Amino acid sequence: MAGTTDDHDLPVRAERAQAIAERVETLPLLPGVVTRLLSLDPDSEKYFDDLVNIASSEPSFAVRVLRCANSAASAPGQPITSLTQAANRIGAARCGQLALAVAVARVFVPRTREQRELWAHSLRVASLSRLIAASSGARTDICEAAYTAGLVHDIGRFAMFERVTNDFDRVAESEWETPQALLEVEEELLGYDHTRVGQLICERWGLPAPLVEIVRHHHRPAKNSERPDYRTLSIDTIQLADCIAIHVERHPGSLDTSFQARALALDSDVKRAAPGTDARMLEFLAEKLPDLEQQVDFTLTGTLGLSKLPEKAP
């Protein structure tokens, strides 16, 4: 699709790309609490204490950490009332992820069903990315970094619904089945794609370089990876999670089928978009999908407070 562009369209496309870049510059910066949390060294002996101190300085964030720690998903034996206990319960790294998600939710507030679904997609990819990394024996810090990367991988699309709503709606109404097809639709309809916009946002927000790299290239075909290595934070991990999330979104009824039916459908669908994916990995993920979906729904409504929206904005 992208290859059908006429030469006379190029100046118009360049102008559109420049316009979106300028609008990115008008986005609010992330709150200081988030940038400070992201700058902490997880290997430092003071990491946990520093995280709790920073979280304590932001009351609304502290409340959400406590709410998350007391949720049914965390299953505490008795109510948790202190931030230190809460951070111990859900983990220091997840506190940082929660802070990032809350901050991004304040910048990009969904107003339509399609925009809310993008939030659900990002949380779905984040949870799948962490699960893929963990199931392959990755270190805890790699697993948590995979979650963060999955959370922000489509940040460029968030900017589109916030700053260029018409562009976002045009893409949302088009027909595409795979992540690569989405990129082609954007290039065809808009003259730019969300990965470049996402890179600009990450750089403006000062996010770590590995995250910027993943956001920019998460639709680029992986090199020399017929059998991806999930033990490191890599684009392969995010790409697989993205494919599975899109499968779930295109076939929501599959979650109510038997494990065997889910596994067969997932294997058939995902392998078309990601050839060489390990069948055993897909079976494992198919088994986990219903529980993962419950976690996504809780984070979306309970933690971030993004309630369900009508088909179209009023």
What this model shows, in words?
This protein has 314 residues and is mostly helical. The protein has a domain at 16-25 and 109-303: Orthogonal Bundle (Hypothetical protein af1432). 67% of the residues lie in helices and 0% in strands. It has helices at 10-24, 32-39, 47-56, 59-69, 83-90, 92-107, 113-135, 140-152, 155-163, 165-172, 179-190, 194-205, 209-217, 235-250, 259-273, 279-303. Helix 3 runs parallel beside helix 6 and helix 12 (194-205) runs antiparallel to helix 13. The radius of gyration is 19 Å and the shape is globular. The two termini are 33 Å apart. The model is unreliable at 1-10 and 224-228 (pLDDT under 50).
Low-pLDDT runs: 1-10, 224-228
Order of helices and strands: HHHHHHHHHHHHHHHH
| Main CATH class of the domain at 16-25 and 109-303 | Mainly Alpha
User: In CATH terms, what is the fold-level topology of the domain at 16-25 and 109-303?
Assistant: Hypothetical protein af1432
Globally, the shape reads: globular
Q: Count of helices?
A: 16
